[in-house]
Design brief:
It is built from 16 helices and 27 strands. Strands 12-25-26-27-23-24-13 form a seven-stranded mixed beta sheet, covered by helices on one side. A seven-stranded mixed beta sheet has the order 21-18-19-20-14-17-22, with no helix packed on it. It has a four-stranded antiparallel beta sheet with strand order 4-5-6-7.
């Protein structure tokens, strides 16, 4: 009975794509094989939206004992280079996956060329010398048929000769294209004689100058799936209308082979859309080139490497994607859900430490000068196996400026003259006053400690309403802290960007109007406990009462740099 209930629960948890895969397996499709592929174009760094596709493509293959290959869609040499190829590989591996085989669309350039030649010879493709504007004007509308090109019925031999000239370098870019001859009246406008080859004279990062004629995505993608033996081709929803053309070209390339049970099957799912996030690689490239951000891995960027540098973990991204799931309709997901996923993950794994990022001096006036104590600090109360470390206590400490007020409002439970607080892991102290500079700024706070309130002492459990953190002035390390926040002030920056550009703004002008001016605050005079001297990039810490932080790649032993991953609480909800 228990096994039956477990099986029922497993069935309930299947998303619609997994259900289709299981149906195909039951029906013996593709000889019971599962083979997926992740096909990025190497024209930029992967963003969080790609992570959803990665988890689906690789996760599906893993769940059903199949293989997921990595195939770079490198059909546009004007935008692609090996830097992006290497970065994509690193991101996939960081997310916890390894591809079965590494392929490139350029591996199939000869096969695709031969297929195009065959289509021309069968009078199923022709060279069109019209401009892109003329071709677009003849496409018609979804309710009105298109107009045939004046070149549609040119002799096969003439198209063959011109096609070869397109690749030999004799034809300039934009002068002619190869179009499939299908149906200019088809309700699906993708069937209205789509362009399948164009001239590009930029050297290719793998094939150099061998090719000058390059296949279009719709022509290369499905055939590449077919050549590789892909069983399930998973795409986002904008490719629903492309699916019939995907199947059409596969039917043409099969050369008489039975595809009923042996063909790639395209299934579409919803993109990952996040509020307060702009994810187009084209727009992200503008931010990088204009120097608005420090690079593709700037912790404010929605790139996978940006999230990694900010301190997000692979587990938190998996958790987030599991929460939003896969559907057949697009939605705008709340960025707060992603932040809650990293909080949940880091709460369970991050070491608790003391750090003061807006310091003011606290002097314990009745504590002996020159005396120190080693106090135990629990590394993580959520993990009993995490252990502990020591933190040094002394007469002069750093505390947060926000933890002292001379004239506080109601329900202020931190340091104020005449009131007591507990110093985390140490003693209860009573504030006795403060000293100010000539401008009225508090530069020192004074307090007296109760020596019987340390752990293990008679009054250790005496209750006070406030607890604050601290570091010893003589036993801490100066550090730089970078407080990152959301880059955009508008909930849907994609739509707002389009609106501003319609008003005549350039992309960068429009972006600057939407930016959050407080997306990065750098604090140089911060102090952290000595325990962090050996911290390394991507180590995770909770700065107690402040948030979760990680060491940045810019950090050195002489100059520690910490990035805020996320605050302890969502501050945007109350501000929106």
């Amino acid at each position: 009975m228990e096994n039956l209930e477990a099986e029922k629960e497993e069935k309930k948890s299947l998303n619609f794509i997994e259900a289709k895969v299981e149906e195909d397996l039951r029906n013996g499709k593709n000889d019971g094989r599962i083979q997926t592929r992740f096909p990025p174009e190497p024209n930029g760094y992967l963003h969080i939206g790609h992570a959803k596709a990665i988890c689906l493509d690789f996760g599906l293959a893993k769940r059903y004992g199949g293989v997921c290959n990595l195939r770079f869609d490198d059909t546009n040499p004007t935008k692609e280079n090996m830097e992006y190829v290497d970065a994509i590989k690193e991101d996939i591996q960081w997310l916890g996956y390894q591809w079965g085989n590494e392929y490139y669309a350029s591996d199939y350039f000869q096969q695709l060329w031969d297929f195009a030649i065959r289509l021309i010879k069968e009078d199923k493709a022709y060279i069109d010398e019209q401009s892109s504007e003329e071709i677009a004007a003849q496409k018609g509308t979804p309710t009105q048929p298109g107009t045939e090109s004046p070149y549609r019925n040119r002799p096969v031999e003439e198209s063959l000769e011109l096609f070869n000239k397109m690749n030999s370098g004799e034809i300039e870019e934009g002068k002619m294209v190869l179009r499939a001859k299908i149906d200019m009246a088809n309700p699906n406008m993708h069937f209205r004689d789509p362009i399948i080859y164009r001239v590009v004279k930029t050297p290719h990062h793998r094939t150099g100058t061998k090719w000058n004629a390059y296949p279009m995505y719709d022509f290369a993608h499905g055939q590449s799936d077919y050549f590789e033996g892909v069983t399930h081709s998973l795409c986002t929803l904008e490719f629903v209308v492309h699916r019939p053309l995907y199947d059409y070209f596969i039917d043409e390339v099969k050369e008489g082979k039975d595809l009923e049970d042996h063909r790639p099957r395209q299934t579409e799912f919803n993109k990952l859309n996040l509020n307060y996030t702009l994810m187009s690689k084209r727009n992200l490239l503008v931010l990088v080139k204009e120097g608005v951000v420090s690079g593709w891995d700037d912790p404010r960027m929605p790139t996978i490497c940006g999230f990694r540098r900010r301190g997000y973990t692979p587990e938190s991204i998996h958790k987030f994607i599991d929460k939003i799931g896969y559907t057949t309709y697009d939605a705008l997901n709340d960025f707060a859900l992603l932040e809650s996923s990293i909080r949940e993950d880091l709460n369970a794994r991050a070491t608790r430490v003391s750090a003061v990022i807006n310091p003011v001096k606290l002097v314990i006036t009745n504590y002996p000068e020159g005396q120190t104590e080693e106090l135990e600090a629990i590394n993580n109360p959520e993990d009993e196996n995490a252990g502990s470390h020591n933190i040094t206590f002394s007469r002069e400490l750093w505390i947060e400026q926000e933890d002292f007020m001379e004239c506080p409002p109601n329900k202020y439970f931190r340091l104020t003259p005449g009131k007591e607080v507990r110093l985390k892991n140490a003693y209860i102290v009573k504030c006795t006053g403060c000293r100010k500079d000539e401008n009225g700024n508090v530069i020192e706070v004074y307090a007296e400690y109760d020596p019987l309130t340390r752990s293990g002492m008679p009054d250790a459990n005496r209750k006070v309403k406030g607890t604050i953190h601290w570091v010893s002035q003589s036993h801490c390390i100066k550090a730089e802290v970078r407080l990152y926040d959301r880059l955009w002030n508008v909930e849907n920056p994609r739509d707002e960007l389009a609106r501003l550009q319609d008003e005549g703004n350039t992309p960068i002008e429009a972006m600057r109007k939407m930016m959050n001016p407080n997306s990065l605050e750098i604090r140089q005079n911060c102090y952290v406990e000595q325990f962090l001297a050996d911290a390394r990039p991507l180590d995770h810490f909770q700065f107690q009462r402040i948030g979760y932080f990680t060491i940045d790649k810019d950090s050195t032993p002489e100059h520690l740099v910490f990035n805020r991953t996320v605050g302890l609480k969502d501050t945007w909800m109350k501000n929106s």
